[in-house]
Design a protein that fits this description.
The protein has helices at about 1-15, 65-80, 160-165, 225-235, 235-260, and strands at about 25-40, 60, 90-100, 110-115, 125-140, 145-155, 175-185, 190-205, 210-220. It is an alpha+beta fold. The protein has one domain (about 1-260): Alpha-Beta Barrel (mRNA Triphosphatase Cet1, Chain A), CATH 3.20.100.10. Strands 1-6-5-4-3-7-8-9 form an 8-stranded antiparallel barrel, surrounded by 4 helices. Helix 4 (about 225-235) runs antiparallel to helix 5. It is globular. The two termini are about 25 Å apart.
């Protein structure tokens, strides 16, 4: 894992420098399971050059896992709640959220996501302005899924601006998401096991395209980004790389417990 930890550490150091100083308190780091697939065959590809910050035009990343993997992950994380050692997890509960995204080109708020909790009847809509700083795509041929790391700046917008966007008359892209979350005590990594639902185009058995609800199963990890950035900011050059790699190694070990080895038949 040392080579991969080095690649991630170098990417994280370089990407963090791209973030404006005033925005560094709003930085998020998401690691997501999915598949790097060939656009031609739509099959998972093991020939792409990765880790890389951009995929070539022949490939794309699909952020989804099989339902079986999703169910198995919930079982593993639930069982770990009863452990008494460093591998113990703590349940952070469940949440159901609805998102409104405005993806129309050439509108000033197409990078803003507006959401509301469906758990609380009195919940208000709130908005987040998102700026993607950098991605890192990692091909893992010996594992069931690949990884995409994303460093972003997410800043809350005002209630006034949120209401203005909601009343703009533009039709939003609507997505609902149910999440179950756990925290790994040893690596301080948060696991979000998500099920999302959205309207989309589906090709039926007769060859016609219809609009249906599409369910996706997703697994995302949120390492302790605050601790990682404290290492980058405060550690000496001699210690920084080693401390950061150790923290990344701990996160990868927990991720590999979910992203198990691929069985080749």
């Amino acid at each position: 894992m040392s080579n991969l930890s080095t690649d991630i550490s170098n990417w994280l150091n370089a990407s963090y420098k791209k973030v404006k100083i005033q925005d560094r308190g709003f930085v998020t780091l998401d690691w997501r399971l999915g598949s790097i697939i060939s656009k031609g065959s739509l099959d998972r590809s093991f020939s792409c050059q990765a880790p890389c910050e951009k995929l070539t035009s022949s490939f794309k990343f699909t952020m989804a896992v099989e339902e079986e993997t999703w169910i198995d992950s919930i079982k593993k994380l639930t069982r770990a709640e009863d452990r008494e050692d460093d591998d113990k997890t703590i349940s952070l509960g469940c949440e159901e959220t609805i998102y409104h995204n405005f993806t129309t080109k050439n509108i000033w708020y197409n990078n803003i996501s507006i959401s509301k909790s469906l758990e609380d009847e009195e919940a208000e809509w709130s908005g987040i302005e998102k700026e993607r700083i950098a991605d890192l795509f990692i091909c893992l041929p010996d594992r069931n899924y690949d990884l995409r790391l994303s460093l972003s700046v997410k800043k809350p917008i005002s209630e006034v601006l949120t209401k203005k966007i909601m009343s703009s008359g533009k039709e939003p892209f609507i997505r609902k998401k149910k999440s179950k979350s756990w925290l790994s005590l040893k690596s301080n990594t948060q696991f979000n096991i998500n099920q999302s639902s959205q309207r989309g185009k589906v090709l039926n058995p007769h060859g016609y395209t219809t609009i249906q609800n599409i369910n996706k199963f997703e697994i995302e990890f949120k390492p302790n980004v605050k601790q990682m950035f404290e290492i980058i900011n405060n550690s000496s050059d001699e210690c920084k790389d080693q401390e950061l790699k150790e923290l990344i190694d701990e996160s990868l070990l927990k991720i590999y417990e979910i992203n198990t080895e691929r069985i080749i038949i």
